[in-house]
Amino acid sequence: MPDFAEIMSADYWREHSIVLAYAVGALILFVVFIIGTFPYDQALTGALMPLGLEIAYASERPGLPVGAVFEGVRLISVDHPAAAPLMQSESLKLVPGLGILVGHPSVGLRARMYGGQVKAQLWRRGDVTGLYLDAAGIDLSRYPMPPAVPPGLKGTASAIAELQSFGPALTSQSGTISLDGHSVELPLIKGLPPLRFARLQGSCTIDHATVRVNMLQGDGPDLAISGSGVIHLGPTPAQTMIDLSMRITPTIAGRARLGLLFAFLPHPPDNRPYIFHGPLLAPQAS
Question: Whole-structure pTM over 0.85, yes or no?
Answer without folding.
Answer: no
